[in-house]
């Protein structure tokens, strides 16, 4: 596990550690039983204060995701990963293909992030009881596959 602290992000360093740890857990990079880097190792990677690392690890422990074992380190005790988000899942492959298309179209990382964040917010704002619309290209693909099976 390698942490990256972006001092320009506006987010505190300890919250960046918490979020990066959770992201690694969601992606299956950290699993129950895995040991987190020591505070000294994180300080070496990031040049932040050891107390900041301890604060982040305490937050993760408070959330029931890790446990500190005196003299042994801090260990992951709960998984956040789902089959849809790890390894070579269909969902992950689809997102990778979309990112490749975006890169080929000249869309940079910040634009991808902005677009994706906007779409998530738009999607989350829809009422739960309302059927989520299927993008037009998906409708065409579904129609074509239905015609092929007839």
UniProtKB/TrEMBL annotation:
UniProt-listed InterPro entries: Tscrpt_reg_HTH_GntR, WH-like_DNA-bd_sf, WH_DNA-bd_sf
Q: Which Pfam families match?
A: GntR
Task: Return the CDD domains for the record.
Answer: WHTH_GntR (cd07377)
Q: What are the protein's UniProt keywords?
A: DNA-binding, Transcription, Transcription regulation
Name by which UniProt lists this protein: GntR family transcriptional regulator
- Residue ranges of domain HTH gntR-type in the record: 11-79
Keyword hit for DNA-binding: yes
Q: Does the keyword Ligase apply?
A: no
| Region: Disordered, residue numbers | 128-150
Where are stretches of biased composition, namely Polar residues? 139-150
Q: Which organism was this protein described from?
A: Streptomyces umbrinus
Q: Which SUPFAM superfamilies is this protein grouped with?
A: Winged helix' DNA-binding domain
């Amino acid at each position: 596990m390698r942490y990256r602290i972006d001092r320009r992000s506006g987010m505190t360093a300890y919250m960046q550690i918490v979020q990066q740890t959770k992201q690694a857990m969601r992606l299956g990079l950290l699993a129950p039983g895995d040991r987190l880097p020591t505070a000294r190792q994180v300080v070496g990677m990031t040049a932040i204060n050891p107390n900041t690392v301890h604060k982040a690890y305490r937050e993760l422990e408070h959330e029931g995701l890790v446990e500190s074992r005196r003299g042994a380190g801090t260990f992951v005790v709960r998984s956040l990963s789902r089959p849809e988000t790890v390894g070579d899942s269909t969902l992950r492959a689809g997102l990778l293909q979309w990112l490749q298309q975006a890169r080929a179209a000249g869309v940079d990382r910040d634009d991808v992030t902005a677009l994706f964040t906007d779409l998530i917010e738009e999607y989350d704002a829809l009422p739960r009881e309302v059927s989520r619309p299927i993008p037009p290209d998906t409708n065409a693909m579904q129609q074509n596959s239905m015609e092929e099976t007839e």
